[in-house]
Structure prediction request, 563 residues.
Amino acid sequence: MDRYTEQRLFGLLARASAALILAVLVMVVGVTLWRGGRVFITDPAVMVTAPGSRYMLDGGGGFLHAVLGSIFIVVPATVVASILAISTAIFLQSDYSSERTSDVINMFLNVLWGTPPIVYGVFVLTIIIAAGAQTSLIFGTVAIAIFQYPIMTRYADEALRAAPDTVKEASYGLGATRFETARITVRAALPGVIAGIIMGFARGIGDAATVLFTAGRSTQMPGGPFDPATTLPILIFEQAASFNAEVRSHAYAASFVLIVAVLALVLASKLLAGRFARFAPGGRHS
Amino acid sequence: MNDDIALRTDDLEVTYTGNREVTALDGVSTEFAENKLTAIIGPSGCGKSTMLKALNRLHEIQPNAEITGEVYLGDEGIYDTDDPLPEIRRRVGYVPQTPTALPLSIYNNVAYGAKLHGDYSSDELDDLVESYLRKVNLWDEVKDRLDDPGAELSTGQIQRLCLARSLAVEPEVLLCDEVTSALDPISAEQVEETLEDLKEEYTIIMVTHSMDQAKRLADDVIFLYLGELVEANDTRSFFEDPQHERTQEFVKGHTAIDYDDEPDEENVTDEQPVATR
Ligand SMILES: Nc1ncnc2c1ncn2[C@@H]1O[C@H](COP(=O)(O)OP(=O)(O)O)[C@@H](O)[C@H]1O
Ligand SMILES: [Mg+2]
Prediction:
């Protein structure tokens, strides 16, 4: 094969794979938006109505319980996980750790990242059983936070490492302490740190396995942190398996909520990151 | 040199440990006169930046740097001291080689260090920011956009912003590491003019590998070669009557554009002002 045929062939392959992936994505998002959007338009109340007592059987009421469950489980988890993740990432920088230490910790984080979420679910379940507690919202939060933590930490660590050393040097040179310098370095790395937080949030809000054993598959409104609760992904699974056609159609509505939430998050992170990128060293040039 | 001495080094030695151990500074003892501009010159890699950082303990952020010897700021040692490290670095300011704005607004770039070290009312801070921006001849260019990101300024402006930022913590000595090497010729000239103004009031120690710049700006010159101090003298004597053979070669290599004279290859390329971007 001559060089030019080779080049043409590869160009074709590259375009074809991009087109394939794009088509699949458009279909997934399209179908969800279309079928979910239809429910949303005809019966928008399902999202803000509490489920009836036999919701899974007759579709009476709506699925507000899962929307709230998702919010109350994932938002606090994200807050806790981001604080832990940013602190860890700061600790991994050369100001605090030797290269060896940070290598070892990073290896653990990679393992954690690769661990299937169901394992976290089972782990937290063990704690629940040992403590003689019941599945509840708060344990869902714990499990999701554990799941998000390595993702966010790796992002934050990469972002801090990529921040120019000169920022650190300038800050120390002005007589800043190690902590003050860490703070300004985080600011310099903010676009990447935020990307990690949003990524963790999106993964957390979409995960079912962690929540399954920890918060449960409740079909009632959660009353407090120690009540059983559920999240949208679990709800979708239950809805889609229902015998009732109306409940099955609600699965699309719930998916619609999830996809819109994730899209909104991605957009928000783009906007936020763009705002902070202006401030990052070399900002507008990069 | 019979001026007052602002800073003095005593047998300063810096070694970078690691796979390949490098003694970047090999027992340097010298003095820096108060309210003068001293240039440290020498070819790349001979320990100029290391020397500068050792003067305010900035090399300590490199995990693999080891140091012996002492630096005296006035009469006090900066290594053997009870003062907290940030206070020492406040008193000996440092402007890095690469113009770097902190990820803050122009205003807060100048106010950053000052806010760390003192309590200022917002009026006082306004005054402080204005006066230091004026001092580096930047005020007129940025007074209408103080809330814009510092990073959106031009490289030359950022370098003057860095100077203002360092001055705002009221250091006694200012260290400048090749502050014009990343700049285009016009910005470099503006920074030089600023340094020219500043040296009336401050003790400035400036690393440069441009002979011409040292001649234009410096009162005294220190010549480092492979981590050793070869010669230190006032600028005039240094260039017109170099004592050491190595200095003579170095000075010649830079002044005469006479390539038959076998100039040190590295130095000739270093001499060209490099315009970036
Ligand atoms: N962090 C470091 N680790 C190991 N070696 C270093 C480090 N920083 C500088 N060096 C070495 O020390 C020597 C002096 O470097 P430097 O002070 O930066 O020289 P200059 O500023 O004169 O170009 C060089 O050989 C350089 O490779
Ligand atoms: Mg250097």
About this structure: Chain A has one domain: 43-279. The interface with chain B takes residues 94-95, 98-99, 164, 166-177, 180, 184, 187-188, 190, 276, 278-285 of chain A (CB under 8 Å). DSSP finds twelve helices and no strands in chain A.
